[in-house]
């Protein structure tokens, strides 16, 4: 369905060229060309890439697994946690990574459900972020255990004493929610990947061909195969959204169900979800910029229009976060309970104040100041910076909620202050390098662009003349049936 | 049997602490540590908030200069009937004993999520941050009735359950009821001013019952609805 | 009957490759005219085209049924983990009743969704007969370059007529291939 539209004059032709530069879906390249571009990117295992992988692998091994092993051997006391702050940087990072993992599904599933066309090229890059973010997050419930080697006691399995886990515990809800989300989002990543694996299979040799052949599952693209795949993708896109919401809600319930002032808040569910989306969408910007900068041919697929759209999303979510924050903070303040006031005072003026003010500036003031600007949103490196800033802000938010609230309680005798120590900082740093390592490996193994979806989008765009202007029109392939 | 706490046939152990009598000597803290094999973490760690004491003396200063007064509140696990620590444990390491109506901690089941400690409004729980060694000759004093805990697990006051059990078994062997005052937790035994009294709430003539009838009786953070089993008698602004 | 004669009537597999989807509906009509009915035609595409675009009979998918079944199984598993295990080992915590409904809703939801998602995925594999276990299936690598491969099964007797018709309608190539539809 190549769009057979002939411009009447030079003005129209110029306008079309302009629109094409702006929008990937209108800048038609043949599927074969796009396949070659994507495969070239995948096969580009340059010396720099190998060095990056080696360095990341070594750093992760030492910083994450080395430090973790050492901590298991010696005891959790190597971390800075103490009475009354029994949860520290590990839980902070756990919540942070769960938040990061949300945006992948959000931009992919929600934009798919609403048929937002601009999503097509970057859904996979975002979904990979979900899977690897969850891989990083999933380590923390193990890392923070006093006896990690007994972690399987949280799983429901028939044991000798017929003793099952306590399903009333939010930690068990966490366990199930995270597993559901991890399995669901991995399958959701894999489903649209199958046709691209078939594409890679048809275009590779050696060990890659063998692996791609296995992963392509013998995909051919028959009508029945497409129909089943599309149905499943539809089911996933709808069903993964409530799962995604439930995961971060349940993470917030770890705090909200507790008999702990500063935690026991009915607004925590949506507040955490908005926070997760804020950090997640910001992280999508960071990832897209990095992919664009380090991977061949990605400048064609990932364009300023995508950063623009994500920037608008980021602005809306930053404002929503401010709304929830205001609700959470000010209303608690006016509740007037003594201990709550002590906690809020501690946030604003206590030892944790620099973190708290970082949170407020990075989450609200800075995005609010700049994201209104279209030029800003369309400049990828600026959006990269914004992504980093917002994520610093969101890490600070979790730090304040977890350690700040625990620092103050009903008995001033047990007030305390927590400072992270080297081992836990090393482990947290290690999960960042683990994420980067997994992503770097995936970037040279999986086609980062869902080529068939991009082509599908191009098919549905045609030119239409309305009055004196020429406009792109979108027709819907899927709902034709 | 709603809630599972209404077993009239069982004993219900409670503790009464008279704050007017408490002079903050700390004998209870020491006795508790000796009885329950509580580890010593050293001065530095203790100052950092990693003391393992199951029973601690909360100390509050009031006033200034000549008016300076000090207040002591010995606090330990309050053995709540509706304990917030229990439902949050994913592996049932802390749960309710239906026989003694106290709050159990199963050391061998604990995996160290530390959620219970965060959810305890009384900050009564302590965590084994490391494997602690008992320097000579302290290692000889270890109480054989009490498990020695390893790193990575949570622990807390048990109302000296080993003493409760021993008294119950003795009474059973002699074919009688446990008499009032027979069970004494280490803290109560060591208290020189008899500020701590322990006994059975279901025995209408018990000393705890009579003391708790005082108008000075209160429970810590009663409004939370945790129904603690430690009853304090108000008072105790001591000259210093 | 000599073998050459016999071979002319044996059903054979052919493929016609088209570059543009617009060429496909007339090509399929031509095939039907030659006498190849829809059940002996398989169209492979690099993009999901609706059946109406290709002019093919409507395709149905049973994947939602798998999803629903999975959701139901997941729900039952959730009931077991929440209320069943509570009955297997009575343990009291925090003054809660043994069977408390609100906290169980969380696990019921998660396990229902897990069942739905996993079963939908399995549904795709089973219903599309993926991965192939036995036999060689027809495939043309140009499909992943978004060419449209029309596979049809007919005798060699009719193949020439079909080939001519398809080539005149713009088929890039029409060749005989080995393999089966599924």
Description:
The complex is a heterotrimer of chains A (481), B (240) and C (182). The two termini of chain A are 17 Å apart. Chain A is globular. The longest helix of chain A has 34 residues, at 223-256. With 481 residues, chain A is mainly alpha-helical. Helices cover 69% and strands 2% of the residues of chain A. Chain B has a single domain (2-239), classed as Alpha-Beta Plaits. In chain B, 20% of the residues lie in helices and 18% in strands. In chain B, strands 8-1-10-9 form a four-stranded mixed β-sheet. Chain B has a three-stranded antiparallel β-sheet with strand order 2-3-11, with no helix packed on it. Chain B has a two-stranded antiparallel sheet with strand order 4-5. The longest helix of chain B has 13 residues, at 161-173. Chain C has two domains: 9-57 and 134-177, 2-Layer Sandwich (Alpha-Beta Plaits); 63-127, no CATH class. Helix content of chain C is 48%, strand content 14%. Chain C has six helices and four strands. Chain C has helices at 3-9, 24-34, 51-54, 63-88, 101-127, 156-168; strands at 11-18, 41-44, 148-155, 173-177. Chain C starts with a helix and ends in a 5-residue tail after the last strand. Chains in contact: A-B, A-C, B-C. At the A-C interface, helix 2, helix 6, helix 7, helix 9 and helix 18 of A face strand 2, helix 3, helix 4 and helix 5 of C.
